[in-house]
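Table 4 source record.
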Amino acid sequence: MKTTLLLTALLLAAPTALAHEGKAHAAPASTPSNNDALAPVIATAERFGAAIKGADFDTVRTLLDEKVLILESGGAERSLEEYLGHHAIADAAFLAGATVKVTHRAGEMQGTTAWLATESEITPAAGSDAKPLLSTETLVMRKAGNAWRIVHVHWSSRTNKAATP
């Protein structure tokens, strides 16, 4: 019950995040954290972003919970298999040549549950028809043994008008 209430509160209060169809997910970046306790959570998020960017779906599989819920652009993917069989390939293709700059990151850990919210600027690959994006990503994670697994992802993005020619 306590975990359910915490997750509900996090989902209602935490910033959101990113993309498909010409949008993208936050990729790895070195962002210092003032809270060393969050270091493993941040490392998991960065591994996840790098795995998507590199089309390393085996690593994505190890980082996402089997029952992960991914919300984006009003849609939902309700399992690891659904994500891998649907949007993961498009996400990897978009991010392959994109540059992702993390501009802000915040999070909190309580016991075996953590959330991490990341804001990024995404610049598509040169020659791409895609527009630069401002992106937000919220990850909710649960600790399993010594590893953190992502149980919920929320991505949101919009055109970065300041970076659009």
